[in-house]
Design a protein that fits this description.
single chain, Urease, subunit C, domain 1, Diaminopimelate Epimerase, Chain A, domain 1, TIM Barrel, 3 domains, five-stranded mixed beta sheet, 21% strand
Amino acid sequence: MKIEVLVAALLAGVASPALAADADAIWFGGPIITVDDATPRAEAVAVKDGRIVAVGKKAAVLKAERGKATRLIDLKGRTLVPGFVDAHGHISGVALQAVSANLLPPPDGPARSIADIQRIMRDFIATSPAVKTGLALGFDYDDSQLAEHRAPTRQELDAVSTEIPIMLIHQSGHLGAFNSKAIEKAGISADTPDPSGGHIQREADGKTPNGVFEESALALIAYKLLPKTTARQGLAMMAAAQKIYMANGYTTVQDGKTDGASLAMLQGAANAGLLRIDVVSYPDLITLFDKPVLHGPLMGRAYHDHLRLGGVKLTFDGSPQGKTAWFTQPYFQVPAGQKPDYAGYAAFPKPGEAQGWVDMAYKNNWQLLIHANGDAAIDQMLTTVAAAQQQFPGSDRRTVMIHGQYLRANQIPQLKALGMFPALFPMHTFYWGDWHRESVAGPERAEFISPTRAVRDAGLMVSIHHDAPVTFPNSMRVFDSAVNRTTRSGHVLGPAQRLSPMEALKAMTIWPAYQHFEEATKGSITPGKLADFVVLNRNPLTVPRATIKDIKVMETIKAGATVYSAP
């Protein structure tokens, strides 16, 4: 491109980083929302070698960048936005979910009652090849949405099978229900004590496990039962999971709290050239702290076949909807068998235990993700991070608070002072908003869950997420929940905490890109950045807000190449 053409293009309204050969492709013909405050809207965007080379007026971009081989792509009125960046999820969990029985309640699944769960598991055992591994696995039961408002007991799962171990994972991922065969196979008995940071629910005798295992107790039994997958099975599972994310417009996804088996599966997918979008893994520091992989080439900002380790993750408490999150005030309705002052519990109850793990991350200069839902867990997080920053100062680590459901208003200034990044979870307002109001925290406290507006008003960036497989990685449902905060019953939970549509879009693009230290290459349609795009059938900034959830992803583009196209 001649210098005279470049000057003319800039004067005509084109942003272009450097002299370049003809563009590979130019998109035009619909709204282009750049999420770049310098040029919020554009008529055309040109791409060369997977990167954006020009953004601006259609005529100017075509004049400056069009060549004989340039593909001209007419959006035909559809909307182009940056590729979505998954602020927090578990793609390896979605891979496991893909070969499990679907126990989700409506609108995502058919499980409305324990009888439904029994029927689904009988059908799954009778028809699924996955049961040949010696385990019948069901994913995403939700006691808050079941007619009985409780988990199935071991006897109710024994009614499905006494020969095949059955394991059901709660939608939060923090609890599980098992039949007697599974409990027996794992070597759990009435004499097995509760592990630190976990709880085995017991029958009336106070000893015999009733089938429900919470937090670290879930890990105690689950890891003994989960079958090892072959390399081929792992690739098939990852391929299925990746398709789900790409169909929802994600070009960068996260795998939080990656265990050793899941990391091996991710590495296998990367080495096989299977990954078509970027995956950022944050291994579980508790299980992988001494593994060489945390000190190897995967740990850092550079991708290797679309995979990198971004840092590590710690979990400070559990699930509010499962009533294992750690609060400073009791639950509105305490779980059966608990004392009236029950307020959940810490994952690290021993003095100094949490501090030791946080210090390890800071000493190694790893970015740290901390799962903290209840305000007591957030207090612990703030205290330990402050101490670690004092002991290991001087580095931009961008420590992330994951979920922060019950972040108090008076905790936000300290969050800001520590330079922490809030990755919040407003999807709860739809899926469990009514449950939060009626059972978890009561109407007053529930109004402030996932306080995105309060965090923004404090001057902080914020990201929003789905936590898949806790919920499906439905990007438009994530968007909708932050803008509307509407519950299943139609109640608007915390209207004062709603984001504008543009803020919600930033919370799915440029702000989580910053969260991942990738704001220079992703998150906005800006010259020089990767050509990661999503084509939507409607403009989320102009449609009636109540219809945002109905917008469809038509195409997902990673580094200029289409990785998903709607049927």
